[in-house]
Design a protein that fits this description.
Blueprint lengths: L10 E4 L5 H12 L3 E6 L2 H8 L7 E5 L5 H14 L5 E4 L15 H24 L8 E6 L12 H20 L4 E8 L15 H5 L10 H12 L10 E4 L11
Parallel strand pairs: 1-2, 1-4, 2-3, 4-5, 5-6, 6-7
Length: 254
């Protein structure tokens, strides 16, 4: 059950939050009382997403996740509107290609790392510079993936980048302790537009490989993120929580 007070008075930034997992996380944190800032590339989609959140406690700032000027604008707006930052959720990520890793254009590989890995670090650096950790209970939650735990056909470099995110999480969890907790979630296939190439047209077949009997939902991920960001996880840091319906234990891949 949602504790309507667990994030009261706290401010969260969720990147890549105009739809899917990011928007579900924003809704879950807002339901717990948080004020939220959402980012995404498309201004129109971001405006629609913000309109679904509690009035007066949600703002959106459009821009590219790997653009330093965008990051500066985001934290400026957060300071102006909310005056503090308590939670950062690094959800923005890309996977522009599908196919054998050996055939990957090196420029595409660089772009994947720039957004998924360097971006996660850069957003965290900017958050700390903007006051994350100034108040007790500060938290960073990163989005990793089961593709970073075991090789997954067709999304090899994405998986490599998410393995890096997982290790970055552990590293920052140690370096930023005790003032800021840093954790990650590593989902398997979640029913979003981003992941549809992994299940579209064969959802029942894919779901049958999961001991839980179904694919994940954005809300499944949002609930785990809320736990890691909340005081309930006050003794949890430098951890990566796998969310896979039992898939990896049963020998599966994303």
């Amino acid at each position: 059950m949602t504790d309507v007070h667990e994030f009261m008075g706290r401010v969260a930034l969720i990147t890549g939050a105009s739809r899917g997992i990011g928007l579900a996380i924003a809704r879950r944190l807002a339901a717990g009382g948080a004020s939220v800032c959402l980012t995404a590339r498309r201004a129109d989609a971001l405006e629609d997403a913000v309109a679904t959140l509690p009035g007066g406690r949600a703002i959106g700032v459009a821009g590219a996740a790997d653009d330093p000027a965008h990051r500066q604008e985001v934290f400026g707006r957060i300071a102006e509107v909310f005056g503090r930052i308590d939670v950062l959720v690094n959800n923005a990520g890309i996977n522009p290609v599908h196919g054998p890793t050996l055939a990957l254009d090196p420029e595409a590989a660089r772009k994947i790392f720039e957004v998924n890995v360097v971006g996660t670090l850069a957003w965290t650096q900017a958050a700390v510079a903007s006051g994350l950790g100034d108040h007790p209970g500060a938290s960073v939650v990163n989005l990793a993936s089961v593709a970073g735990i075991v090789p997954s056909p067709g999304i090899g470099m994405y998986g490599v980048s998410k393995a890096a995110v997982a290790h970055l999480t552990r590293t920052l969890g140690v370096e930023l302790a005790p003032g800021i907790r840093v954790n990650a979630v590593a989902p398997a296939v979640v029913k979003t537009r981003f992941a549809r190439a992994l299940y579209e047209g064969r959802e029942e077949e894919v779901a049958a490989t999961y001991p839980a009997g179904r694919l994940g939902t954005p809300e499944d991920v949002a609930e785990a993120v809320a736990y890691l960001a909340s005081p309930r996880a006050a003794w949890v840091t430098a951890q990566v929580l796998t969310l896979d319906g039992g898939l990896l234990t049963a020998g599966g891949t994303a």
